[in-house]
Design a protein that fits this description.
It is a single chain. The chain has about 325 residues and is an alpha/beta fold. The chain has 2 domains: about 5-125 and about 280-300, 3-Layer(aba) Sandwich (Rossmann fold), CATH 3.40.50.720; about 125-275 and about 310-330, Dihydrodipicolinate Reductase, domain 2. The chain contains 10 helices and 15 strands. It has a 9-stranded mixed β-sheet with strand order 14-13-12-11-7-10-9-8-15. Strands 3-2-1-4-5-6 form a 6-stranded parallel β-sheet, with helices on both faces. Helix 1 (about 15-25) packs across helix 8, helix 5 (about 100-115) runs antiparallel to helix 9 (about 300-320) and helix 9 (about 300-320) packs across helix 10. The chain is globular, with a radius of gyration of 20 Å.
Length: about 325
């Protein structure tokens, strides 16, 4: 078996192409085939990434050279594609959000487990240099015990997305940009501070568009710490995470490329020098390594499912006006 892992792209849009480019940059894997519903999309992708075209998902999954698939389609298609890929014995990398519902997530996890294939979810934001450093500081005890986590991931996509974009559909984008952007921060909160116990959601309904303009989640974590998450498609770009703890605070900005740390008695934060990390290349290199048995999958189906459960609880909270326990959402599924 070659050291180079051979993968196929399922979904050939902008992000699918970005993932294929990142695969090539890992030096560990290559994209050898692709499929998308639109023939012109897959032909353009194949020309750009020098791979062959499959005329159907069945043809792609029957290809014996393909060891794994990279799924970057609209999220409502993730469960059936995961189930098909698992039955074909292909390892699976699927973009976030993992699935639309906990029920779908449980089925997808079961499909991969029963087939004995790897399942990795594309929550790459935890892999940025700042998040990795904050995690190390928390594990060493340098920051003390987490009290609060404050996050915001927003951008002005709402002013430029085409009318036919699936993100305008409230069924596919519940709570607006929370589905596309906020889920990254839910995973980051899980990574840095542990599971969410309960959620209270506040939303600003869309005025000119059908999706919510802004959403804020207030969360109680299993540890007793508290967290907030703000997201919108109608503000300038911001991607920030701050951990406030008993012995210090850590401020991640610029999407995780910048970090400043403030000790308990320090008057102001001080910048920390970081070794840059490309989180997308890093996650795909890890996927290739896991296929070769060199490492474990960090963000597996269970981790992706945990984010989906928080999202489902948040949607229920927004509709009911009450805090919702995440465990109750899992129990119903």
């Amino acid at each position: 078996m070659s050291d180079v892992v051979r993968l196929a792209g399922v979904g050939t849009g902008w992000w699918g192409s970005e993932l294929a480019t990142a695969v090539a940059r890992t030096g560990r894997a290559e994209v050898v085939s692709c499929f998308a519903r639109r023939p012109e999309g897959r032909e353009a992708f194949a020309a750009k990434h020098d791979c062959r075209v499959a005329d159907s998902i069945e043809e792609l999954l029957a290809d014996p050279e393909v060891e794994g698939v990279i799924i970057s389609t609209a999220n409502q298609s993730h469960r059936p594609l995961i189930e098909q890929s698992a039955r074909a014995g292909k390892h699976i990398f699927v973009e976030k959000p993992f699935t639309n519902t906990v029920e779908d997530g449980l089925a997808a996890v079961a499909a991969a487990r029963d087939a004995g294939v790897l399942l990795q979810v594309g929550h790459q934001r935890r892999r940025t240099a700042a998040k990795r450093q904050i995690k190390a500081m928390l594990e060493s005890g340098e920051l003390g015990e987490v009290e609060t986590v404050v996050t915001n991931q927003s951008m002005p996509n709402g002013f430029k997305m085409p009318d036919e974009a699936w993100r305008w559909d409230p069924e596919q984008s519940p709570l607006g940009s929370m589905t596309s952007l906020g889920v990254h921060k839910i995973d980051t909160i899980h990574y840095l501070a542990g599971p969410v116990r309960s959620v209270f959601a506040f939303t600003r309904p869309g005025r000119s568009r059908p999706i919510d303009e802004a959403t804020v989640l207030a969360m109680e974590l299993e540890s007793g710490a508290l967290a907030t998450l703000t997201t919108s498609f109608f503000t300038p770009v911001i991607n920030a995470t701050t951990v406030f703890a008993t012995d210090g605070a850590a401020y991640s900005t610029m999407g995780g490329d910048k970090l400043a740390v403030q000790g308990r008695d320090d008057p102001a934060p001080v910048a920390v020098e970081l070794e840059p990390i490309d989180p997308v290349v890093d996650e795909l290199a890890a996927f290739a390594g896991a296929i070769r048995g060199e490492n474990q999958v960090e963000v597996d189906g269970e981790a992706g499912l945990a984010v989906v459960a928080v999202m489902e609880a948040a949607v229920e909270s927004a509709e009911s006006g009450h805090a919702v326990e995440v465990a109750s959402v899992m129990a119903r599924a």
